[in-house]
Amino acid sequence: xxxxxxYYGVQVFKTICEKFLTKVELNFENIYRMIEISNxxxxxxFNQLVIVFASKNxxxxxxxxxxxxxxxxxxxxxxxxxxxTEHQEVVFEAVYKWAEKQVKENxxxxxxxxxxxxxxxxIFDLL
Length: 127
Known about the structure:
Layout: H1 2-8, H2 11-22, H3 31-40, H4 44-56, H5 58-63, H6 72-81, H7 88-107, H8 115-123
Helix pairs in contact: 3-4, 4-6, 7-8
């Protein structure tokens, strides 16, 4: 439905869809799909709920393989909410692995780049 609202530019319908989504129970089975939806359709209120859920459950959230497919801007928002967590070492390790995966995917064709330097650049503004 939200695809239709977005495609035809019907803001009222899009708002109703967002209101419905804010009532959906977030869990670890749907959180990555909900992040994708909130980003794709610029659903500000829903995005805030999704980010807060991920931040409050950061330890479990980081263990999912789908974590490594997050966009950098989404990861940054999540990290901003969980900067006071007691699991800072776990967060740092997961962010490093996320950056490493992103860099390796981008460097497959570029053998001249230094992996460690590129990883540092990738995570610089995240930490």
